[in-house]
Model the fold of this input.
Amino acid sequence: MSGAERGRCERRIRSGCQTTRRPTPRRARRAQLLESALEVFVANGYHNTGMDDIADRAGVSKPVLYQHFPGKQELYMALLETSCDAIIASCRRALESTDDNKLRVAAAMTAFYEYVGSESGAFRLVFESDLTNEPAVRALVDRVTVDCAEMITDVIREDTGLSVTAANLLAVSLVGMAQVSARFWTDDPGDLSREEAAALVAGLAWRGIAGYPKHD
Done:
C-alpha cells in the first residue's frame, strides 16, 4: 500500500470514529423550551420572568428561543393552553371511566387533586396566574371551568331532568369545590394525603349531588 493510500485509509478510520453532533429536532427543542419555561414561570411568575431566564434554564441562546416563540407572552400562552387542555382531558377521562355517578364524582375530584398536586406546579399557571387581566389569558383560564362544568352538566341533566341552567349551576359549583379545595390542600396539606383529601371532598360533593333524585 502506497503512502497516499495509507493516508486515505487512516483519514477514513478517523472520520468513522468521530461523532457527528446532530441538531435537536424542532419538536423536541420546543418541548424542552416549554419545560424550562414552565419551571421558571412557576417559580417566578409571569412579570418577574424574562426571556433571558428561560434561555438560561434551557441552556440555549435567546435567538434559539425566539426561533420558536416570538415573545414571552406567546410562550406563556402556549404553556397555559397545554395546562388547560391537560386538566380538561383529565376531567373528561374521569367522567367517562364509569357509569356509576358516585364513582364519577370521586374520579373527577381525584383528577383535580392529581393535577394540582403534580410536582410540575403547572396548575399555578391556570388557577393562580398573575396575568389574568389579559383577555386571552382570562379566556383560557375560564375555559377550564366552562368545559369541565359543561361535561358535568350533561351528566346531571341526564340523571335528574333538571333544566340546563340549574344543572350548569350545580356543575360549576362542583368544579369550584374541586379547584378551591385542591389548591387549599396543596398549600397546607397537614396530615392528609392527596388520596385522603380527594376522597373526603368527593364524599361531601356526592352527599350533596345525590340529594337530587334520578329522573326516570
In short: The chain has ten helices and no strands. The chain has two domains: 25-70, 80-209. Confidence is low (pLDDT under 50) at residues 11-21.
